[in-house]
Amino acid sequence: MSAEATNPEAHAEVRPELRRRGRTRLDLRRLGRAALLGPTSRDRLPDAIGHVAEAHRAHHPDADLSILRRAYLLAETSHRGQMRKSGEPYITHPLAVTLILAELGAETTTLTASLLHDTVEDTDVTLDQVREEFGAEVCFIVDGVTKVEKIDYGAAAEPETFRKMLVATGNDVRVMSIKLADRLHNMRTLGVMRPEKQERIAKVTRDVLIPLAERLGVQALKTELEDLVFAILHPEEYEHTRALIAAHAGEADPLPAIADSVRAVLREAGVTAEVLVRPRHFVSVHRISRTRGELRGSDFGRILVLVGENADCYAVLGELHTCFTPVVSEFKDFIAVPKFNLYQSLHTAVAVPEGYVAEVIVRTRQMHRVAEAGVVALGNPYATGEPADCDEERVDPTRPGWLSRLLDWQQSAPDPDTFWTVLRAELAQDREITVYREDGSASGTMSLPAGASCIDAAYAQHGEAAHGCIGARVNGRLTSLSSPLSDGDTVQLLLAQDASSGPAADWLDHARTPAARIAISSWLQSHPDGAGPAAAAPRAPLSVVGARGGGGNAVVDLPDATVRLAGCCTPVPPDAVAGFLVRGGAVTVHRVHCPAVAQMRSVGRTAVAVHWRATADCRVTLLAESFGRPHLLADLTEAIAREGVEVVSATVEPPVEQRVRHSYTLQLPDATGLAALMRAMRDVPGVYDVRRT
User: Cβ(75)–Cβ(66) under 8 Å?
Assistant: First the structure.
């Protein structure tokens, strides 16, 4: 299979910066046929890396190319005599990888390491030689890539080797940049391998490397990798899509005319902008055809508008929506809310008079560079710091939050299979949210995958201490731990004081992050009998009944009548009350505003005068709502006892979603102490509401 057959953008637009320099874009796929080291003077770059130098200077005009010359000479000498399976000299591979990165705008250190990335593993060159000749920074990256290159793509080896790759990437994201470019060139030349090996490598590329490219924002590599994998794993659908694109190539394309209209609108409005037509790649066309059915001419590409400043993006958007009919559902603002992989742009779609709907992307030139190259466009993240030793582990200032999460949980993954399964699930997430801790400070933010719940936030903030989480407040309101979080939510997590508390089995149904799932699974495996909050199981309410009863200190004007304080409103002194004669000669006492009073009167119940005794004691029923945890009932009754209150009866309902309702009928020695009693009950950990029934 030829590489040319898998890339529909071989004829795509020339990059603006390259057009301005009068240089056409190189066909990277043909670099394998580039001339090898030819006769050169000592101060002249070898002909074989002339294209690399030219591409590098397009992004970094002042770059010192002497280190590239020395790196190439070492690589060419070391690899001399080695051949690739395609029959080409091996040196063409590091050259191709380096040119890919140079076209993306990688800085000199990355390109130097790229040229040398196979020397330590495949030749007699050592890391000490690399450090001595090119410095600690290049040595660090080459060492990381070497560890990654040792990946064995056998099914049993994949989990553990990708764990090593993840650690190497976390130490320096440039390691993964080189690995992705390396995989792209290998995929371009994969046709020389057996079909079963092509399929195995394509699946690993699809499951891990393409999502990593998406996470790192390197769209230029991601899109071509997608097309190459698509051609191998889905040959029939690929051929169908290629036929669609070929058929469209023979028809009139409406997008250039639409682009001319956009240019005219922006020119008239005085907005300086560059308007380009970007053809869709194969996988994008395939996805669109599955969602829209029959494709029209404007579906095979999009309009790209490049401007100078952020404010110009919104000016362009205003002109487009004023002069054309906008498709409101297609508008997305990734400038105000960037994607987790650094991507920023405005997306919209407009309908033109000819009846076509054109998708439009608006971004600055800097946004365009980052959108295409992702972390590669960030340059050297350690330019202002001290170079690290080859064996030193460090924190990358450009490391995204998702990568930090993966590095944290990979250390606690119990076995390679769990790691592999959870890694693929984590990489399948395509969006992140940011939530805030209760203090609202910038340092109190947490990055979580979209769809994460309060359980995920608990483990992200507290680690294994989250086993004792009993509830949460989201934006000030109490909610269950299973509640999903939204971007911008403020979360306060409530932890039990009992160290023996643990998670419930159903937490796994609501956990989305690997850290939470692994921690919960590990705890449940080590506590097979369970000590966490019990699942809601049908059982009879627990009742504790004291010896006292009757009407407390309520007195009615009916000799020898039995007095009962109504349970519906639990009147206490000095509440205004009303009494009614019921069956059996008893009198029930209600607060005057109780709904039952109106009902009693409507059915003709006899009203009886009632008043409170001069004594201050009273009886009241309180309802306490709490999160379930061990020893909660004991803590509540202890708090009640400390207030000098007697428990007449208590009822505990079965827990529902880890929430428990307690009903207490209490005898107070003094009605004025009711407010203090309710505060004391609310102060019990896990209790979030206490009220009179």
Answer: no
Q: Token digits for 189?
A: 């030349």
Exposed, middle or buried: residue 336 (CB in 10 Å: 0-12, 13-18, 19+)?
Answer: exposed
Asked whether residue 680 carries a pLDDT value surpassing 50, the answer given is yes
Q: How far apart are CA 401 and CA 333, in angstroms?
A: 21
Angstrom distance (rounded) from CA 8 to CA 283: 10
Distance, C-alpha 458 to centroid of its chain: 15
Identify the sign of the CA torsion 680, 682, 683, 687.
positive
Residue 329 falls in which region: left (phi positive, over 0), alpha (psi -120 to 50) or beta: alpha
Supply 597's token pair.
Answer: 């009073």
State residue 221's pLDDT score. Answer: 92
Q: Is residue 598 a contact partner of residue 605, using CB atoms and an 8 Å limit?
A: no
Name the active-site residue from 122, 199, 253, 506.
122
Establish how many alpha carbons lie within 13 A of residue 25's alpha carbon, considering only the half-sphere containing its beta carbon. 15
Q: How many residues does the chain have?
A: 693
pTM: 0.63
Question: Which distant-in-sequence residues (6+ apart) come within 8 Å of 386 by Cβ?
Answer: none
Determine whether 121 is an active site residue.
yes
Q: What are phi and psi of 86, to 5 degrees?
A: -75, -5
Nearest in space to 481 (alpha carbons), one of 501, 510, 502, 442: 510
Residues with Cβ < 8 Å from 188, sequence gap 6 or more?
3, 29, 228
- pLDDT at position 50: 83
DSSP annotation of 207 reads I
CA–CA separation, 566 and 666 (whole Å): 14
Per-residue confidence (pLDDT) for residue 436, from 0 to 100: 83
Q: How far apart are CA 53 and CA 440, in angstroms?
A: 48
Alpha helices in 189-309 (DSSP H): 195-204, 210-215, 219-233, 235-249, 255-269, 282-292
Sheet holding 432-437, edge to edge: 445-449, 432-437, 490-495, 469-474, 477-479
Q: Active site residue: 47, 121, 333, 506, which one?
A: 121
What is the Cα–Cα distance from 652 to 501, expressed in whole angstroms? 20
The tokens for 379 are: 């340059």
The CA-atom distances, in angstroms, between 287 and each of 206, 277, 630 are 16, 19, 52
Q: Tokens for 686?
A: 């896990």
Task: Please give the full DSSP string across 403-441, using - where no structure is assigned.
Answer: HHHHHHHHTT-SSHHHHHHHHHHHHH---EEEEEETT--
Strands 346-351 and 357-364: antiparallel
Is residue 143 part of the annotated active site? The answer reads no
Alpha carbons 89 and 83: distance in angstroms, whole number: 5
Residue 388: φ, ψ to 5°: -95, 155
What sign does the CA torsion over 385, 390, 391, 397 have? positive
Q: State pLDDT tens for residues 609-652.
A: 888 776 667 778 888 888 777 777 878 888 888 888 888 888 88
d(CA 448, CA 464): 17
The 10 Å Cβ neighbour count of residue 110 is: 26
What pLDDT score was predicted for residue 2? 33
Alpha-carbon distance of 620 to 482, in angstroms, equals 34
Long-range pairs, 459-465, Cβ under 8 A, ≥24 = 459/511, 459/513, 459/515, 459/516, 459/519, 459/520, 460/405, 460/513, 460/515, 460/516, 461/437, 461/493, 462/493, 462/495, 463/519, 464/519, 464/523, 465/495
